[in-house]
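Notes, p. 3: input format for complexes.
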Amino acid sequence: MSAAYQSFLKEILIDESALQRRVAELGAEVSRDYAHRDGTLLLICILKGGVMFLTDLMRHISVPHEIDFLAVSSYGRGARASTGNVRIDMDLSAQVLGKHVLIVEDIIDSGHTLRFVMDVMAARQPASLGLCTLLDKPSRRTIDIPVDYTGFQIEDKFVFGYGLDLDEKYRNLPFIGVVDLDKVHVE
Ligand code: IMP
Ligand code: MG
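Output follows (187 residues plus magnesium ion):
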């Protein structure tokens, strides 16, 4: 194979069928948990990394729900660690007040990004506030974040694909791959 990512793909950590199976399970869990709650379920996708996960997950959520998007950035292009300096690049268009909000995120690493997002959302007074992450790197956590739904716990490796980027690219890949950091240069 001569795909552009082959030179730095160390291994495929989670293949497409394993991802799809797990996302379907998470969707079923969310459906079960929210089926009997009064009020609107609002899924908030954290851009850009959460976009593939959201669009697959929502297909498996049988409860009527709204979606919205929040773009945040935690570190600059090329860097591989969160700075703790998180800001909103694009805010929601939906009202949060009184809704059951479920944050949909690609990965929790240090926890800085999610701490910021959860605090901002809590201040807008939702009926409830939950967190669903596809990936979790618990060994990297510096801020404690309670997670309601986790797709996969992974080791401390830099991963890409299925929404996650390597310098903004390769979000389209249908699998989660491990980056061989010796083979990529930081721009
Ligand atoms: P945190 O603020 O350290 O928890 O970082 C969370 C954000 O960093 C995620 O939303 C991702 O955008 C990014 N991130 C963390 N680990 C990885 C990775 O292994 N690959 C790609 N992006 C990552
Ligand atoms: Mg990123």
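The longest strand covers residues 65-73.
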